[in-house]
Design goal:
Number of strands: 5
Number of helices: 4
Structural class: alpha+beta
Oligomer: single chain
Helix content: 25-40%
Strand content: 15-25%
Largest sheet: 3 strands, mixed
Strand order of the largest sheet: 3-4-5
Shape: globular
């Protein structure tokens, strides 16, 4: 979790997405996770979480997302404005295993996304784009 320097600005508060990821990763049903900051007209940026279930977990997504939101609220505080998360089958990664958070953030902001040459499976970007769309991103102004 050496990402403490990845900071987003939520309503003037500088918050670490790495710290939020630590909270999500501590959930017993979460195998891996990523938190990105996406642009928000009112708050500046807001965090959006993506989690992958551990093998065999059958809990409903709504229940796990509620538990994750409550965990972030309890451990970091309501100032984090962590209200959006989704369970995904996998995260976009490079062949060496690095999660492509910058690419995910650009998709959430509606920016042009180039497929990185080091990506393990480009099809995952369409899956993440679909999840972001269901969550309402990118926001229409």
């Amino acid at each position: 979790m050496g990402r403490i320097d990845d900071v987003i600005n939520v309503a003037g508060h500088r918050l670490s997405t790495g710290a939020m990821e630590e909270v999500l990763a501590s959930h017993p049903d979460v195998a891996e996770c990523a938190v990105i900051g996406v642009q928000d007209e009112l708050k500046g940026e807001v965090p959006v979480g993506f989690v992958v279930y551990k093998a065999g977990v059958r809990k409903p997504e709504e229940q796990v997302v509620r538990e994750l939101i409550d965990r972030v609220r309890d451990r970091i505080g309501p100032v984090a404005f962590f209200k959006t998360a989704s369970v995904v089958k996998r995260l976009p990664k490079t062949r060496s295993g690095k999660v492509l958070r910058g690419t995910m953030r650009r998709m959430g902001d509606g920016q042009e996304v180039r497929v990185p040459p080091t990506i393990d499976d480009p099809a995952i970007l369409d899956e993440i784009r679909g999840v972001l769309g269901k969550l309402g991103y990118p926001r229409k102004v």
